[in-house]
Amino acid sequence: MRKLTMTVLPFAFLGLAACAQTQDGPAAGPALSAATAEVRDAAGRVVATATARDQAGLTVRIDATGLRPGTYAVHLHAVGRCDPPDFATAGPHWNPTTNQHGRLNPLGPHFGDLPNIEIGEDGRGSIAFAISSGSVRRGEHVLLDADGAALVIHANADDYRTDPTGNSGGRIACGVFG
């Protein structure tokens, strides 16, 4: 059985521009695949943006700007639909390896398990993380398959243990990767 490795990379994207250039211009080789999502609450207000790109596996960054202070679960979901008010159309968590939920669960984690995001008093928070054997559009574990994918923010923090959702509460915001 393959193990999933996730690493929180709070400032992972700071060096991306420098890594993509050589003294002679853009680095040679295939272009990296990327996708973005505007994450909206049930009223349609943008509360975060997410970027997924092929870098060290699948690297995802979330920047929240419109949530109340607190700790929220963030998950990748298997379907690229976000119909309000409950965002149930995003389907279950992205789980191509059929593991259980939670990095503290001995039968987990699966690819949709992400770190919680901390939102400060100013309504802002950011996280970045890598899923070593995932990718945006190519390879064995593709995020953007035929029905797409979404990023969902939940009402509560993830306990990193309880299957299938980490006791994270309802879905309060959702964004489709495109």
List keywords for this structure.
178 residues; mainly beta; Immunoglobulin-like; 8-stranded antiparallel beta sheet; 1 helix; 12 strands; disordered N terminus
Instruction: Detail the poorly predicted runs.
Output: 1-30
What is the end-to-end distance?
Answer: 31 Å
Shape: globular
The total strand number stands at 12
Mean pLDDT: 84
Number of structurally distinct domains:
1
Which sequence of strands runs across the widest sheet? 1-10-6-5-4-12-11-8
CATH topology: Immunoglobulin-like
Class from secondary-structure proportions: mainly beta
Largest sheet data? 8 strands, antiparallel
Structure report:
- There is one protein chain.
- By secondary structure, this protein is mainly β.
- It starts with 5 loop residues before the first strand and ends with a strand.
- It is built from one helix and twelve strands; from the N terminus they run βαβββββββββββ.
- It has one helix at residues 16-19, and strands at residues 6-8, 21-22, 25-26, 34-41, 46-54, 58-64, 70-72, 74-77, 117-119, 125-131, 150-154, 171-176.
- A hairpin with a 3-residue loop joins strand 5 and strand 6.
- Helices cover 2% and strands 33% of the residues.
- The strands form three sheets. An eight-stranded antiparallel beta sheet has the order 1-10-6-5-4-12-11-8, with no helix packed on it. The chain has a two-stranded antiparallel sheet with strand order 2-3. The protein has a two-stranded antiparallel ribbon with strand order 7-9.
- It has one domain (6-10, 35-176): Superoxide dismutase, copper/zinc binding domain (Immunoglobulin-like), CATH 2.60.40.
- Mean pLDDT is 84; it is low at 1-30.
- The protein is globular.
